[in-house]
Amino acid sequence: METGEPMAMTASAAGPAPASGVREAEDQRTRQLAAVYSAHARGYAEIWSPVIHPVAARLLETLPWAGVGRVLDVGTGAGGHLQHLRRLAPRATILGIDRAPGMLAIARDHAIPLALMDAMALGIRDRSIDVAVMAFVLFHVREPVGALTEVRRALRPGGLVAVTTWAEDPEVEAARVWEAELDAHGAVDPMPLPPSRHDRTDTPDKVAGLFSAAGLAPARAWLEPLVYRWDLERLTALRTRYGRTKRKLESLDADTRAAFLVRARERLTSLPPEAFVYRARVVAAVARRPTTD
Predict the structure, then answer these.
(1) What is the CB neighbour count within 10 angstroms for residue 10?
(2) Which domain holds residue 84?
(3) What CA–CA distance (Å, rounded) separates 258 from 215?
(4) Does 63 map to a domain?
(5) Which of 84, 141, 176, 224 has the most CB atoms lying inside 10 A of its own CB?
């Protein structure tokens, strides 16, 4: 495949439509999720993305990159994996796509082409991609098999898709203390989101089954550990700048917020170091579009 030719974007055919009420509810959730990620993009990029990038990088390093000409990063977010992809495939055309405009605004710093696009309806030409990456995104989409079917359509025969999803994503003790204090101070989440469907993608066997249902040939699926040691300052930054706890904190008036921060820091400083250690597990998986179709 020529490495200098840009990826052609086209309108793609969607699969069978779900019932209109279900589809509207799922579309609303997708819009809410995009809005939340847009609003929290800078905190995500600076604090959370560096935590999860290493495990995705380990997966990417297992792929054969020689001769790869076109790479699609589905759900690129703030672009945390784009420079790693550039190092692995320096001659490839790389495109990052996401539904959250605020995330893409941050990702522009990487000087790699980006597009606002839904994983369920890729505006990408059939059989035009060598490698597709879906790092920590499959559990967000309304129909994982549908999203993987779209990826399969865009992959050339023999092309690869690499996926990471959460197997275990536990809260550290320090984070539980932080949220308990938020609740004690009367904080509420003004935009609660329906929970992501991690139960569909939380084991290697489940992800391999989704691959097969989408017409992809599973190559390998395994568990990767993710261990990160927070300190007080970085945990405080995460909880005030990203996610549900950011929204809850912003629901408090200025005086209550200040009182909460004092009390939360007092409690956190009394915790042992182990209370700040994040120990998660990630499903890493690779599949291939069959060469015979």
Answers:
(1) 12
(2) 21-170+192-228+279-288
(3) 54
(4) yes
(5) 141
pLDDT tens string 64-98: 999 999 999 999 999 999 999 999 999 999 999 99
Residue 120: inside a domain: yes
Total domains, the chain: 1
Q: How far apart are the C-alpha atoms of 39 and 44, rounded to whole Å?
A: 10
Quote the pLDDT of residue 293. Answer: 76
Structure tokens, 168? 């275990």
The token pair that represents 203 in the structure block: 């084991």
Asked if residue 70 is part of any domain, the answer here is yes
Q: What is the pTM of this model?
A: 0.89
Residue 53 included in any domain = yes
Q: What is the per-residue pLDDT for 14?
A: 37
**CATH number of the domain encompassing residue 59:** 3.40.50.150
Residue 139 makes CB contacts below 8 A (sequence gap 6+) with: 165, 166, 196, 197, 198, 200, 201
Other C-beta atoms closer than 10 Å to the C-beta of 11 total 8
Instruction: Note the pLDDT tens digit of each residue in 194-236.
Output: 777 889 999 999 999 999 999 999 999 999 999 999 999 999 9
